[in-house]
């Protein structure tokens, strides 16, 4: 069985790699198979990990006790029917005359997500980030030696200055001239450096994946020996 | 057509071939790259290393097979470190593609390298829980309510109610953990563990992400993240710190270190092509101006 898995994995990898030469039916087959298998995997996971334990086991605990251990001996929680109904009417999008019903489910999903995320993003991504940027001392003597101290001060200056200049670049209510314009120019450079770092990291990620696949193919070839 | 103009219009398949060769040959040598842990990775290592024995660590593997080459070495190194330090390891995932990866970690790392560790006492597999950041939020106050069953050890150990597992008894919420280590490659991942887990519960968070995501996570360090492994390099740096502190892992914890050698060669080739491409571009421009 493991040999079969290895062969299927290796052949599909080669089919995907064949696109680097040019588009071809083998690549198309592997691509479509990947999309189909992924969709099926997510659907099965969603059913057994979400609908069965979080809905059916709550509404029909006695009937589901053999499948969901946690449902054994628990009471019927009928309010879960509301979630079930909202889930079902989401599918009314497929029936045009009553498609409007699905908006209620969408409103619930959007409202819950916005409400949950708003406070956390505001706290973690805005307030705490502003605090940790502005609380950096521009002159500190806390390094282990003079070189560390110098580098620490330089890093803090780059972070605070970079954030300010980056923000100025996106501030369009004042003309970018004079000192303001120069800071805006520095802001562009800060953005370019950030994009460059992102690009470098992306290259590293892609090469890492290539290394993973080549290691897999090496294992496949070695299995012949 | 001059040499540089020819260089500028080279078929991209030659470049693919060069990259493939640049990765394959160094990989076949099996050599490790010399890697020195950066401060951000060293801080993560030190934070875990400083935990007293018996401390509870939550390891969340939030990635899929596509990023296993980057993420799994991180998870393996952290798991080895935790078990070596006699920390209680709780493994979960909030990605549907996570369960097979947890099985790999359990079988290839934990059970293979630490046969004396006992399931349910030293480590536990709590499996997958659907709900993205909603799960993390719920774990703050009702951990056992979310995980009524564990995920067991495949064919060797069937899932059982968590009420029967010894190491689950002291867990009420995320506050009962001493450290949270999310290893992620997207949404939900390390960012959500910071926002909904660490920032809410006050528990230290430090983890690992794919290289693509790393630049987006660095701003959380050091206030909201105790440390971060960024991509394969981050994993290799953690392995370097681990093998430096615990030389017995010299052979087992060098997956990322070995992968960093072809990574380095491939980067040199790419840098070379970028330089050549620029030379070709400016040479063609100069020639056009002369005409």
Structure description:
The complex is a heterodimer of chains A (225) and B (291). Chain A has a domain at 138-225. In chain A, 75% of the residues lie in helices and 0% in strands. Chain A has seven helices and no strands. In chain A, helix 1 crosses helix 7 (178-222), helix 4 (80-90) crosses helix 5 (102-134) and helix 6 packs across helix 7. By secondary structure, chain B is of the alpha/beta class. Chain B folds into two domains: 3-29 and 262-290; 39-253, 3-Layer(aba) Sandwich (Rossmann fold), CATH 3.40.50. In chain B, 51% of the residues lie in helices and 11% in strands. Chain B has helices spanning 3-8, 12-29, 39-49, 68-84, 99-113, 133-141, 143-146, 190-201, 214-217, 231-245, 255-290; strands at 56-62, 88-93, 123-128, 179-184, 204-205, 207-209, 228-230. In chain B, strands 1, 2, 3, 4, 5, 6 and 7 form a seven-stranded parallel β-sheet that branches. Classes of the chains: A mainly alpha (225), B alpha/beta (291). The interface between A and B is large, with 39 and 49 residues.
Helix and strand arrangement:
The complex is a heterodimer of chains A (225) and B (291).
Chain A: H1 2-17, H2 25-59, H3 61-64, H4 80-90, H5 102-134, H6 146-169, H7 178-222
Helix pairs in contact in A: 1-2, 1-7, 2-4, 4-5, 6-7
Chain B: H1 3-8, H2 12-29, H3 39-49, E1 56-62, H4 68-84, E2 88-93, H5 99-113, E3 123-128, H6 133-141, H7 143-146, E4 179-184, H8 190-201, E5 204-205, E6 207-209, H9 214-217, E7 228-230, H10 231-245, H11 255-290
Helix pairs in contact in B: 2-11, 3-10, 4-5, 4-10, 6-8, 10-11
